[in-house]
Specification:
- The protein is about 35% helix and about 20% strand.
- It is of the alpha/beta class.
- The protein has a 6-stranded mixed β-sheet with strand order 3-2-1-4-5-6.
- α4 runs antiparallel to α5.
- The longest helix is centred in the middle third of the chain and has 15 residues.
- The protein is globular and about 55 Å long.
Length: about 220
């Protein structure tokens, strides 16, 4: 993590690139989530391919979620806000990081973005998936209810990554439903039969995996 956080400083200090790339290849990625790599690549985009290679390594040995997953990512205007007052990461960065991770650990997955409308995201990985989600539509309103009603897929679970603001009522999920709130609000929209997880944490995905073991 310290290596990732200091990549920009090492670049500005003119550290030998070969040493940096060797360190990225050797780094222990076991407890690092993709949003950390997204933050690092933002500051040094010309090293993005090296950072992405390290990021994908952190996903190789993750436990899998079996069955069909629908992943619904909020790209409304409020998602462009900072994750916290002490962070330069946005809620969108956090959501994209979780999407990159879930793309790799779900056995079968369909990914959508929502704002004013629902958009199916191309089958991509890594930073290409981040870009596809971010650029899928204008970042405007939060029509979560309409998006959920528009999804026609049959699924075992649906995972919504959002800051839990919505202009319309939220229907019940058609399978297990998770509402992951990457903002710091105490109250949101994901109540009733939804499994509601407040606040962004690196343990979110581990929680879902452990929770679902009771169904296996």
């Amino acid at each position: 993590l310290a290596l990732l956080c200091n990549l920009r400083n090492m670049y500005l200090a003119d550290v030998d690139e070969k040493l940096i790339f060797e360190a990225l290849d050797r780094m222990n990625t076991e407890k690092i989530l993709p949003f950390r790599f997204i933050a690092a690549a933002r500051h040094i985009p010309h090293w993005e391919s090296k950072v992405e290679r390290a990021m994908m390594k952190c996903l190789e040995d993750k436990e899998k979620l079996t069955g069909k997953t629908v992943l619904l990512v909020d790209v409304s205007g409020s998602m462009d806000s900072e994750l916290s007052s002490k962070s330069d990461l946005t809620r969108c960065d956090a959501a994209n990081g979780l999407a990159i991770l879930l793309r790799e650990i779900c056995e079968e997955v369909a990914i959508y973005s929502f704002s004013n409308r629902l958009v199916r995201i191309p089958d991509r990985h890594g930073f290409a998936l981040r870009d596809a989600i971010r650029n899928s539509q204008e970042h405007m309103g939060t029509h979560l209810g309409k998006a959920l009603n528009s999804i026609e897929d049959n699924y075992d679970r649906i995972i919504v990554i959002t800051d839990e603001q919505s202009v319309d009522p939220i229907p019940n999920p058609k399978g297990r439903g998770y509402m992951l709130n990457v903002a710091s609000y105490q109250n949101g929209v994901g109540y009733g039969p939804w499994i509601h997880i407040d606040g962004f944490s690196e343990a979110i995905i581990d929680y879902i995996i452990e929770y679902e073991k009771q169904y296996n």
